[in-house]
Amino acid sequence: MEVPGDARAPEPGENQGLKPCLLRRNHSCEQYGVAASCLEDLRSKAYDILAIDKSLAPVTLVLAEDGTIVDDDDYFLCLPSNTKFVALASNEKWAYRNSDGGTAWISQESFSVDETDNGAEPKWKNVARQLKDDLSSIILLSEEDLQMLSDVPCSDLAQELCQSRVTVQGLQNTLQQVLDQREEARQSKQLLELYLQALEKEGRILSQQPESKAGFSDETDAADTGLSRESASEIALSSQILTALKEKPAPELSLSSQDLELVTKEDPKALAVALNWDIKKTETVQHACNQELSLRLQQIQSLHSLRNISARRNSLPAELRSPKRAKRDPT
Questions:
Q1: Is the pLDDT reported for residue 5 higher than 50?
Q2: Rounded to an integer, what distance in angstroms lies between the CA atom of residue 243 and that of residue 187?
Q3: Where this protein primarily resides, as one coarse class (predicted)?
Q4: Nearest in space to 101 (alpha carbons), one of 255, 303, 264
Q5: pLDDT score, position 101
Q6: Which pLDDT does position 191 carry in this prediction?
Q7: How far, CA to CA in Å, does 330 sit from each of 63, 77, 92, 183?
């Protein structure tokens, strides 16, 4: 006689043993929801759902976030629901996608939407959804977006994020701390620049017209480069970014990571003309933007690595072996 509720191993295909997963191809943004009872079941469904030619068998399943090869059912069952998988055909190597590593700003559309455009929602709601998807993206936001979310009424933000007011109040405190840290970094850079300028001035031979030279420096920067102002039309940066570069001290701290990437990709000569700067100053600012962007990406990757390690340490049996890594596509 079978006892009701008696535990038994689920058979493949039984609903009670299905694990929801997200599945996509390498180098693709489209992902599909799949329910699988085991690793082999997921691999089998990958052929049909992702239209993988059977001649490219076998398919290797890896974690989208870091390329960990999943080839053990026990490991598969320990993973949380809706884990993202990438299906690699036999001729493919795993390639890291920024959208999987918390830097979705690179592939997402810009959030700088006019609040009144076509009756669109307030901009802060779009930014809030970005945080809802990945809280670590706080690091990637511009100071304007950070301040905007800090100023949103706690109850409105709590409703948008589906969190308690206490949790959202803590989030807003964190946003303010990030703003404070950037301001402290800006002040430190300004003090360092003033100190270096004082040293340079002290050791410099007094010229006949120092003030006159300084007064015309900004006006002659572009002329000194020997560049045509027509090249300024080649700039793809928005007026908002250009204004921040011109007016903000340490502008790399004010811009979002998406804007930083745009600045670093601009041609230095065209950017120099657009800003009315000389090449040396332009390249210095681009270098600072590149360093700030690299720092933020490193912080994001570190947070995700710590989060993954913590989650696996709490969920995996101690006897499971260390995971293997898929070979990374150098391209």
A1: no
A2: 19
A3: cytoplasm
A4: 303
A5: 42
A6: 83
A7: 18, 31, 12, 37
DSSP structure string for 259-305: HHHHHHHS-HHHHHHHHT--HHHHHHHHHHHHHHHHHHHHHHHHHHH
**Distances from the Cα of 32 to the Cα of 20, 24, 25, 70, 133, angstroms:** 10, 6, 10, 18, 17
pLDDT of residue 127: 85
pTM listed for this prediction? 0.45
| Unique residue bearing structure tokens 């293997």 | 324
CA distance 94 to 71: 15
* 15-23 LR contacts (CB < 8 Å, sep 24+): 19/76, 19/77, 19/79, 19/81, 20/81, 20/82, 21/81, 21/82, 21/83, 21/84, 21/85, 22/64, 22/82, 22/83, 22/84, 22/85, 23/49, 23/50, 23/84, 23/85, 23/86, 23/87
Q: Which structural domains are found in the chain, ordered by start?
A: 15-96 (3.10.20.10), 98-203 (no CATH), 223-300 (1.10.1490.10)
Q: 20: part of which helix (H) or strand (E)?
A: strand 19-25
Q: Measure the CA–CA gap between 224 and 240, rounded to whole angstroms.
A: 26
Q: In 10 A of CB 273, how many CB atoms?
A: 24
The total of other beta-carbon atoms located within 10 Å of residue 60's CB is 18
How far is the C-alpha of 304 from the C-alpha of 311, rounded, in Å?
Answer: 10
pLDDT in tens, 223-237: 444 444 444 456 778
Amino acid 104 reads A
State the residue for tokens 């009701």. Answer: 4
Calculated CA dihedral for residues 283, 245, 105, 179, nearest 10 degrees:
120
The tokens for 217 are: 């420096």
Question: Percentage of the chain with pLDDT > 70?
Answer: 71
pLDDT in tens, 167-215: 888 888 988 998 888 888 888 888 888 887 777 777 765 555 455 455 5
pLDDT tens-place string over residues 47-91: 888 888 878 778 889 888 778 888 888 888 888 888 889 998 877
Max avg pLDDT among 233-237, 272-276, 298-302 = 272-276
Q: How far apart are CA 168 and CA 164, in angstroms?
A: 6
